[in-house]
Write a structure and sequence with these properties.
Distance between the termini of chain A: 40 Å
Order of helices and strands of chain B: EEEEEEEEEEE
Largest interface: A-B, 21 and 23 residues
Low-confidence stretches of chain A: none
Radius of gyration of chain B: 13 Å
Mean pLDDT of chain A: 94
Largest sheet of chain A: 6 strands, mixed
Distance between the termini of chain B: 37 Å
Mean pLDDT of chain B: 94
Number of helices of chain B: 0
Strand content of chain B: over 45%
Helix content of chain A: under 10%
Shape of chain B: globular
Low-confidence stretches of chain B: none
Oligomer: heterodimer
Helix content of chain B: under 10%
Strand content of chain A: over 45%
Shape of chain A: globular
Structural class of chain A: mainly beta
Chain lengths: ~110, ~110
């Protein structure tokens, strides 16, 4: 299956700082999503972004499909941003809807 | 979008027993999936729940251990059979609602003692 690599694995920030999370994938994709898993285990949809750029408040994401990577930007981080951020992709030719997940980036934001 | 509920939200079970997890969606969906997340790990797909036919299992997962039912387009169950401590995980149901995004339920946190 398609390989998904995320970096960095861990990130510790002070409140107010900005950060960039990266997701590299090994093949062409139909779907790429970013999720935030909160401390209670709930996966929250952040972006559906197989290509292009999207913004939602302090978060934005860019996917360069031809170069097989995606970036998630978090600006002015808050303690509530803490948790694990996952990138997941559906490869072209994969079963419809079948997502491959990266190992995630564990983000800790200190007050 | 889709709103997904799972029952139970958490459980503590003894080894050798079985637990059935329910997943309910607020609308009819094409595809439903079951994932496992072991402690500190990423999500791994267990199987695709097919309506009206047997589930499609990923490598390393078998029907005898993880039987799945999907009687209609809004409901599915996953049973974790003959449990051992290694089965302690979060089990998540997800759906693909046809708008390209996939949505996840709140998860079932299982501890096997």
């Amino acid at each position: 299956g398609i390989q998904v690599e995320q970096s960095p694995p861990d990130l510790i920030l002070q409140e107010g700082a900005n950060s960039t999370l990266r997701c590299n994938f090994s093949d062409s994709v139909n779907n790429l999503q970013w999720f935030h898993q909160n401390p209670w285990g709930q996966l929250i949809n952040l972006f559906y972004i197989p290509s292009g750029t999207k913004q939602n408040g302090r978060l934005s994401a860019t996917t360069v499909a031809t170069e097989r990577y995606s970036l998630l930007y978090i600006s002015s981080s808050q303690t509530t941003d803490s948790g694990v951020y996952f990138c997941a992709v559906e490869g072209r030719g994969s079963t419809l809807g079948r997502l491959y997940f990266g190992r995630g980036t564990q983000l800790t934001v200190w007050p | 979008s889709a709103v997904i509920s799972q029952k139970p939200s958490r459980d503590i079970c003894q080894r050798g027993t079985s637990l059935t997890i329910q997943c309910q969606v607020d609308s009819q969906v094409t595809m439903m999936f079951w994932y496992r997340q072991q402690p500190g790990q990423s999500l791994t797909l267990i199987a695709t729940a097919n309506q009206g036919s047997e589930a499609t299992y990923e490598s390393g997962f078998v029907i005898d251990k993880f039987p799945i039912s999907r009687p209609n387009l809004t409901f599915s169950t996953l049973t974790v059979s003959n449990m051992s401590p290694e089965d302690s995980s979060i089990y998540l149901c997800s759906v693909w609602a046809g708008d390209y995004e996939q949505y996840f339920g709140p998860g079932t946190r299982l501890t096997v003692t």
